[in-house]
Amino acid sequence: GEHFLAYVSRDWEGATTAAARAGIRVVNMRFGVVLTTAGGALAKMLPAFRLGLGGRVGSGNQYLSWIALDDALNAIAHLLATSRLAGPVNLTAPSPVTNREFVRTLAQVLGRPAVVTVP
Fold this sequence. Notes:
Layout: H1 4-14, H2 17-21, E1 27-31, E2 33-35, H3 40-50, E3 63-64, E4 66-68, H4 69-81, E5 87-91, E6 97-98, H5 99-110
Parallel strand pairs: 1-5, 2-4
Antiparallel strand pairs: 3-6
């Protein structure tokens, strides 16, 4: 991409080039949003959703690549234990969802409406 995070990611991963050239196995883990009720983005959303005040952001068409905390931890353990894996690895669920789909699913799981739209 040609935006700020793309440049940051390129530079960040580029900083590992010397290690890889020296024969050190490098794994660049690219995380989606890690979801857990214990903290982070989901924990911040839950209070509003539980009150029936959750809703989509803007059009809701923005995509969200996500991964459950347990899946992220298992993936990290697998990467540590599997020496043939190297380079960039995306740690996300198989398919991203739109903000609209995520909000709809979260509201359904909680049994609450999701009618508020955040501009």
